[in-house]
């Protein structure tokens, strides 16, 4: 009885399995549909409750996850966009599986007739947010063979938030998250300059750093 209540009350979300790869390909039958070099392979599971908000969140996370090293070899510092790497996206409804005993149930997955245009909008969002020629795709609804050469291995499981339904609160949360990601992407010199500007605005008499120079920027 308890398990039935949990199943009914649980909220489904968009799910993505993100793998850092050195190479990934999709074939249907004997035909190779897509191929990417170093970058990401994304398996995406769309639920019946997903909206544009889920798409926006997942797309932003995929493109900004810091899964790569920088030019000096420091790990976890660069995103796929920072490195101009490719992304292979594959629709995978089985990520929405709910087990009933040992039998998989896929009722929480969005029906194919709705999922296909929804998935296409996800791809459009990815391409408009990045370089469209670097976003590759499998073949929706086809029986695909996905060959993944996982780099690391590195695999990240991502789900869209189930947070409050209030639009104002959702907008506030999204802006806060975007500010955090923008701050992380700044280098040390940029952060130091921003802090200096903030101190100058708060204290009109604070020195700007130049000899004998006093900030003239004052609050009205």
Would you identify the CATH H-level superfamily of the largest domain?
A: D-tyrosyl-tRNA(Tyr) deacylase
Gross morphology is: globular
Low-pLDDT runs of 5+ residues are 1-10, 206-220
SSE succession: HEEEHHEEEHEEHH
Overall SS class: alpha/beta
Amount of beta strand: 25-35%
Please give the number of β-strands: 8
Query: Describe the biggest sheet?
Result: 6 strands, mixed
Distance between the termini: 64 Å
Going by CATH, the architecture of the largest domain would be 3-Layer(bba) Sandwich
| Helicity range | 25-40%
Instruction: Count the DSSP helices.
Output: 6
- Radius of gyration, taken over Cα atoms and rounded to an integer in Å: 22 Å
Oligomer: single chain
CATH level 3 topology of the largest domain:
D-tyrosyl-trna(Tyr) Deacylase, Chain: A
The count of domains is 2
**Kindly state the mean pLDDT as a whole number?**
82
User: What's the CATH C level of the largest domain?
Assistant: Alpha Beta
Short synopsis of the structure:
By secondary structure, this protein is an alpha/beta fold. It is built from six helices and eight strands; from the N terminus they run αβββααβββαββαα. The strands form two sheets. Strands 1, 2, 3, 4, 7 and 8 form a six-stranded mixed sheet that branches. It has a two-stranded antiparallel ribbon with strand order 5-6.
């Amino acid at each position: 009885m308890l398990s039935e209540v949990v199943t009914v009350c649980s909220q489904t979300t968009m799910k993505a399995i993100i793998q850092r790869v050195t190479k990934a390909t999709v074939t249907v039958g004997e035909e190779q549909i897509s191929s990417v070099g170093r970058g990401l392979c994304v398996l995406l599971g769309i639920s019946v409750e997903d909206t544009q908000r889920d798409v926006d969140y997942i797309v932003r996370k995929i493109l900004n996850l810091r899964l790569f090293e920088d030019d000096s070899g420091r790990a976890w510092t660069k995103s796929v966009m920072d490195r101009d790497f490719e992304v292979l996206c594959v629709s995978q409804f089985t990520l929405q599986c709910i087990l009933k005993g040992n039998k998989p149930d896929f009722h929480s997955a969005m029906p194919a007739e709705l999922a296909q245009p929804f998935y296409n909008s996800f791809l459009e969002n990815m391409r408009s947010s990045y370089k469209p020629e670097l976003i590759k795709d499998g073949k929706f609804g086809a029986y695909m063979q996905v060959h993944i050469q996982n780099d690391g291995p590195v695999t990240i499981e991502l789900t869209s938030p189930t947070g409050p339904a209030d639009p104002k609160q959702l907008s506030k949360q999204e802006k806060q998250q975007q500010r955090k990601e923008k701050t992380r992407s700044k280098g040390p010199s940029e952060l130091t300059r921003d802090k200096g500007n903030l101190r100058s605005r708060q204290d009109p008499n604070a020195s700007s750093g130049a000899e004998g120079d006093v900030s003239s920027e004052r609050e009205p």
